[in-house]
Design a protein that fits this description.
Elements lengths: L1 E8 L18 H13 L13 E2 L8 E10 L6 H11 L4 E9 L11 E10 L12 E2 L5 H9 L3 E4 L14 E12 L2 E8 L6 H14 L6 H8 L14 E7 L1
Parallel strand pairs: 3-10, 5-6
Antiparallel strand pairs: 1-3, 1-4, 2-3, 5-9, 5-10, 7-8, 8-9
Length: 251
């Protein structure tokens, strides 16, 4: 039987979502598989992980999630409410699961996904505040209307090579962006981007380019120029991962 659930996590204490070969650094997948193995098999004490998980996609070090989707196979029926309660009690405090359900054996958390929705948040204020947490703070004023004009250029299907950091495993650089919008609530700027797939550090590079446009008073059309250049050197720097959250995966 195949089961799926949603995983919420605060990413700052983990080296990304995926297990890394030859590394002992903590990951979301590592903690989740240890907890599942403890609950199902009682084998975590010796670091065995007989329960394997498949994630909807990779999130990097420091990135958060409220909607990561994971599937795993288990040959016995599961009572969802009891299983989720027990699993959450085993997991570290900064990881939790919800919405456990049985799915078809043809379901694949990664390959069946149609859309992924990310949100990036940063503070736009000159003075710091003790409650800003780990969010990036931009001290100069940013113009939301200009930022939206720049974001409009990334909508649709494009080669996003300019926004790809080295390390992308999939050779395809083509992504389709369904929605890209920016809003502001008080001192917080919120950027929503929905796409069929994302390259390594793509969202952080797009936000970095937006901030560069505002910081250097460039025209919004600069985003179009960067996109068409297909050259990572033309885009802005990757912003901090701490404001980035995977919100939802659609199937």
């Amino acid at each position: 039987m195949r089961y799926t659930f949603r995983v919420q996590y605060i990413g700052k204490n983990y080296a990304g979502s995926q297990l890394q070969a030859g590394s002992d650094l903590p990951t979301i997948q590592g903690e989740l598989e240890k907890a599942l193995s403890t609950l199902i098999c009682g084998d975590s004490a010796n670091n065995k992980r007989p329960v394997k998980t498949i994630f909807s996609g990779r999130t990097d070090r420091g990135v958060n999630s409220v909607g990561q989707v994971v599937h795993f196979d288990y040959d016995k029926p599961i009572v969802a409410s009891r299983f989720m309660y027990s699993l959450n009690e085993i997991l570290p405090d900064d990881i939790s699961v919800s919405d456990l359900k049985e799915v078809s054996s043809s379901f694949h958390a990664q390959k069946s996904a149609k859309k992924r929705h990310y949100v990036y948040e940063f503070i736009n204020r000159r003075l710091k505040n003790a409650f800003d947490g780990d969010l990036l703070r931009i001290k100069y004023h940013v113009d939301i209307e200009r930022m939206q004009k720049a974001l409009d250029y990334i909508k649709g299907e494009h080669d996003f090579s300019s926004f790809k950091s080295s390390g992308t495993l999939n050779p395809s650089k083509i992504c389709f962006i369904y929605e890209a919008k920016v809003s502001k609530v008080g001192d917080k700027v919120i950027i929503d981007i929905i796409g069929n797939r994302f390259l390594y550090n793509m969202v952080r590079a797009i936000v970095g380019t937006l901030i560069e446009i505002e910081g250097h008073n460039l025209q919004p059309e600069h985003m179009k120029d960067v996109l068409e250049a297909k050259d990572r050197r033309k885009a802005g720097q990757n912003v901090s991962p701490y404001g980035l959250t995977l919100v939802e995966v659609t199937y």
